[in-house]
Design brief:
The chain is α/β, with parallel strands linked by helices and 333 residues long. The chain has twelve helices and 14 strands. Strands 6-7-8-3-9-10 form a six-stranded mixed beta sheet, with helices on both faces. It is elongated. The chain starts with a strand and ends with a strand. The structure holds adenosine-5'-triphosphate. The site of adenosine-5'-triphosphate has 13 residues, from β1, β2 and α1. It comes from Paenibacillus arenilitoris. Pfam families: ABC_tran, NIL.
Length: 333
């Protein structure tokens, strides 16, 4: 649905060239929720804005659906942009217009009749659960409600793609979760492809299917969310994993332990089974859990524990064999 090929974007600042995006290629499949995560200044916004050509790439091509946007005239591009909705961190609503009029705005631009506009706006208000707030002005809404207006407006023209620019960064954790649920719901109901940028691992973990990690304008790691975050390779990816894995004290904690240190990874329903207990029970091995996460990535439960096994080599090997036989990944730390 979205294909970025060798995208570069540089800016000239005071006679110097700043390379915000360096040779990025990626493909987002139809119906997928794809996240791009990176620290501040990594080039996320610039890359996202290249997708609908709010920023013109210095070189490279952007294709959405079967249309290469980088090859279009300004008039053709205007029409194609209707297939791409966008939401923003600070909502970008028209402060002097009501919720209804904000949502109607892109429909008015598309020159729909008044009756068509009213019907569509009613549908959208229902979709984002703002029927009770249609006649309010943005200043009378909470942050979460403002973002719901942003989402309804972005979906007004039935786009194929929704671009989300740090859509939850200005919201508290509870409101963030309600907006993420709404995005999941929209993705499931409408089959819309979602490309989002964020600096929050929680956003990626909650709703994305695949993720790309961006650092200094380059993609440094990309793949299924489960795979990338359970086996992070790049230091920046590890930083983001640590945001939710609480492994800050890791190094200190693991130093000087006498037993064998192992990282065990569970994926799927195994996560909730007493596998570790069953594996050690027939042996004399004792264990201590030194660090652990048990959570979900989108719909999939997973767990990753660092454990110390204390016992004879033969018994410890027997436990490791039993864990692997149950389908766990076990590796030395
Ligand atoms: N219009 C511009 N003119 C000059 N430099 C820019 C412009 N926009 C972005 N940059 C530079 O490009 C780099 C990437 O910026 P960008 O805003 O894309 O990063 P980001 O990952 O979205 O960061 P943040 O999360 O802080 O918004 C930065 O070094 C930034 O200073």
């Amino acid at each position: 649905m979205i294909k970025l090929h060798n995208i570069r974007k540089s800016y000239r600042v005071g006679g110097l060239s700043v390379e915000a995006v360096r040779d990025v290629s990626l493909t987002v499949h139809k119906g997928e929720i794809f996240g791009i995560i990176g620290h501040s200044g990594a080039g996320k916004s610039t890359l996202l804005r290249c997708v609908n050509l709010l920023e013109k790439p210095t070189s490279g091509t952007v294709t959405v659906g079967d249309m290469e946007l980088t090859g279009l005239s300004e008039g053709q591009l205007q029409r194609q942009r209707r297939r791409i909705g966008m939401i923003f961190q600070h909502f970008n609503l028209l402060s002097m217009s009501t919720v209804r009029d904000n949502i109607a705005f892109p429909l008015t631009l598309a020159k729909l009749s008044k009756a068509e506009i009213n019907k569509r706006v009613d549908e959208l208000l229902k979709l984002v659960q703002l029927e009770q707030h249609a006649d309010k002005y943005p200043a009378q809404l909470s942050g979460g409600q403002k973002q719901r207006v942003g989402i309804a407006r972005a979906l007004a023209n039935n786009p194929d793609v929704l671009l989300c620019d740090e859509a939850t960064s200005a919201l508290d954790p509870q409101t963030t979760n309600s907006i993420l649920s709404l995005l999941l719901d929209i993705n499931a109901k409408l089959g819309i492809t979602i490309l989002l940028i964020t600096h929050e691992m929680n956003v990626i973990r909650s709703i994305c299917d695949r993720v790309a990690v961006i650092d200094k304008g380059e993609i440094v790691e990309m793949g299924d969310v489960l795979h990338v975050f359970l086996k992070p390779e790049h230091p920046v990816t590890r930083d983001f994993v640590d945001q939710v894995a609480d492994s800050g004290a890791n190094g200190q904690l693991l130093r000087g332990r006498k037993g064998r240190l192992l990282r065990m990874t569970y994926i799927g329903d195994l996560t909730y089974e007493p596998i570790l207990y069953n594996a050690v029970k027939p042996t004399g091995v004792e264990f201590a859990i030194l660090q652990g996460t048990v959570s979900r990535m989108k719909e999939t439960p997973y767990g990753q524990l660092i454990v110390e096994l204390i016992g004879s080599d033969a018994e410890v090997e027997r436990v490791i064999g039993a864990l692997r036989a149950e389908g766990l990944e076990v590796e030395a730390v």
